[in-house]
Amino acid sequence: MKKQLFAKRWSPFERDFLKGDKEEQFPGVYLLAYSDQPMADKPVKPDDIFYVGSSCTGLNARLNQFHDGIRRYCCHSAAMRFYKRWRRRSRPRPRQLFYVAVVAVPCETRKELRTEKDIRKMGRVAELEYAALAHIKKHTGFEPLLNKK
């Protein structure tokens, strides 16, 4: 799954990014870039990654929490760190934008319905998040700026 994640291309990040996509309801890992350069459709590179996050339930809901949090200091711990450190500062032009890449892990997350196999898949989400962080550290010498872990 790490190869799949790093083979992705950046998409502009907006609220309900995954709305209507089958991946929206599944857990997974997401990468965010924050840049004043156009990055849409460019390959994901470790140097471009500003944050690595994961969701143990629906990816779309978690991404929406981040989206809301960078605008009003709520909802997502990394978004609140961004708001405090980067959002409030006046930015020179051109405007910086977020870009996103995701890998969803199709499985049932509801406790009353999930199987042993679903629980193992959920564990792969956590493993993928840390594998992505390790990959970035190996290639850049640093972890993404917005990650606290």
Brief write-up:
The chain has helices at residues 2-6, 59-72, 77-87, 116-140; strands spanning 11-12, 28-35, 49-55, 97-104. It is an alpha+beta fold and 149 residues long. It has one domain.
Describe this structure in words.
By secondary structure, the protein is α+β, with helices and mostly antiparallel strands. Strands 1-4-2-3 form a four-stranded antiparallel β-sheet. The protein has helices spanning 2-6, 59-72, 77-87, 116-140, and strands at residues 11-12, 28-35, 49-55, 97-104. It has one domain. The model has no long low-confidence stretch (mean pLDDT 92). 37% of the residues lie in helices and 17% in strands. The protein is built from four helices and four strands. The two termini are 21 Å apart.
